[in-house]
Design a protein that fits this description.
There is one protein chain. This protein has 2 domains: 263 residues, Type I PLP-dependent aspartate aminotransferase-like (Major domain) (Aspartate Aminotransferase, domain 2), CATH 3.40.640.10; 132 residues, Aspartate Aminotransferase, domain 1, CATH 3.90.1150.10. The protein has a 7-stranded mixed β-sheet with strand order 3-9-8-7-6-4-5, with helices on both faces. Strands 10-11-14-13-12 form a 5-stranded mixed β-sheet. It has a two-stranded antiparallel sheet with strand order 1-2. The chain has 401 residues and is α/β, with parallel strands linked by helices. It is globular and about 75 Å long. The relative contact order is 0.12.
Length: 401
Amino acid sequence: MKRHTGQDRSITEHWRPATRAVRGGTARSEWGETSEALFLTSGYSYDKAGDAAARFAGEQAGMTYSRLQNPTVEMLEQRIALLEGAQACRATATGMAAMTAALLCQLSAGDHLVGGRAAFGSCRWLTDTLLPRFGIETTVVDARDPATFAAAIRPHTKVFFFETPANPTMDVVDLAAVCALAKSHGITTVVDNAFATPALQRPMEFGADVVAYSATKMMDGQGRVLAGAICGTTDFIDNTLLPFTRNTGPTLSPFNAWVVLKGLETLDLRIRRQSESAVTVGRFLEARVPRVLHPGLPSHPQHNLAMAQMDATGPIFAFEVADRAQAHGLLDALELIDISNNIGDSRSLMTHPASTTHSGVAAEQRAIMGVGEGLLRLNVGLEDVADLTDDLDRALTAVGL
């Protein structure tokens, strides 16, 4: 079946983000379908044995095996690259597959990584447990202060790895300052941009080398599938990342890729509406709880930095109550908002990180990270914001707040 993209990169690069999110990377078969086709195949056939040999040698364009290429997955990769402003993208089975591959593909025993202290629990497991197991040294720093990165650099430092905003404390990293520091020392920056997505923040515009995603979150946006993505230069994706993913196989399924393609079509609409609602809910909570950690509110210590490098601050933020008992009591009193450790969904979700997403992190490390026993993380969805504040009002009253 003959396929054609109908897209010249010199044309698509001039498209604005909303157009890229709907049409970027689209490839059509001879049938002329308007929605992206779903190619459920593990392998591909060749007209002649020489064609197979030529493709495996890289001398002929075409697919060889869906662990390496798939038309549906390739469309997603091209679309995310366009949204990010990256030369290339590689999709993965999950967000953690993306984070793991982005690091292990370029690190070896004897290398050193500097990571942000505030991070998703599994990302901290990578820096605290997995990498040291393979002889890769790691130093965890307070990423809110660029000087901590400078102080941690060693002769064998190869990578800076951090999230901004960070999960779940909403620490904000000065992208321009940290990325400039890295470049001046020949260090690669790997930025987890899952909380913002390229709809709200594009780290490469500030000098980041590699941007990684859990596309499970806002990119799908409706809690349906798992997916991840890694963006970078063509050289990095093809010559550093691809040999790792080719042989280890963290492959995204075509169906999941198709679902995320559909999610990207409404990403900009969803994330901006949810960002607005999150600010409203955050203001409501400021009058009721001891502390709200929301970069979109002036009370956040890095509010100005967040507004300078983000178009909006996203649907996710955290707030604090007295302790675990009060946090669990509040969760149990909710009627509308779901108790769930997922984020990025069109439904509002809340979790207690210390007993869920960060339960695998040692208590003393959680304390250093700022993940206290009274911390709650809230994902604000697309429901009517008045219904959300009504639900929170009932739950807060039930626990004496």
